[in-house]
Amino acid sequence: MFKRILIASDLSPVSDAIIGCMTNLKTLNIKEVVLFYALGFRENDEVSEIVHQQVKPDLERQQDILKKEGFNVSLALTDGMPSEELKRVCDEKEVSLIVMGSHGHSAFTHQFFRIGGVASEVLNSHEKPLLFLRIKNDASGFEAASVNLKEKILFATDFSDISMYAFEYLEELVKDGVQNITLMHVQDKGRISGHLEHKLEEFNHIDNERLLLRKERLEKLGATNVEIKIPYGIPAQEIINEAHQGYSLVVMGSQGRGYFTNVFIGSVSYKVARNSDVSVLLVPERFRE
Questions:
Q1: 278 near 134, Cβ under 8 Å?
Q2: Domain residue spans in the chain?
Q3: Which domain of life is it from (predicted)?
Q4: What percent of the chain has pLDDT over 90?
């Protein structure tokens, strides 16, 4: 599914952990890796050249590790601003997935999220699926929180077109062997409480029928254990709470109607990616392969 991916490295221990666990991500059929680092300079001058020479050996070290794991690896060490260069390199290399490490709040202290408000730029404008790979830190150091991302998946939907794009990705994962899935739609307490609570049972019935149709599609593709959950509450918190119940990956659209309106600081997608204990795959509106 993800033949060519881009790893956004900041040469931190979390980035090293991503590199170290890439052999486990071969279950996603990854063949090629673009190892990306942006220096954050507007102009190529003597300072940028000095930093370039300082950074390159560490990037080549990560490249060597990936090559030993059997990946075809190319380097993309650029001078420009991260969000701009990320989009350019993804387009030029025809990347199908962007991978970034997440360790607590550390994903959002990554260089992409430190430079000039890049957080909202990257998350709000990314045109490729974005995987926040959850990294844990224990006595043995940094490592991936889940060895097999396809072990048990939580799919959160608001029934928007964008969520359907994400569902198509879920279908591809099922074709690749995913068996255990929970389909989840949160009845938004903020929208329903007060004047629509008397219709909650009706909403639940309608949305359960929608999820049953998706369940049938997944079962026809080979999924053997598909659950449906429709909690009532605050969407981001309900998704995060459920994600803590032994899942290996959360899949969701990164834009849409309802509570997936946009990906920006404070949105559901941002909150889930930031606070989930497991890896999160965000599929954007513009991505169709």
A1: yes
A2: 4-144, 153-279
A3: Bacteria
A4: 44
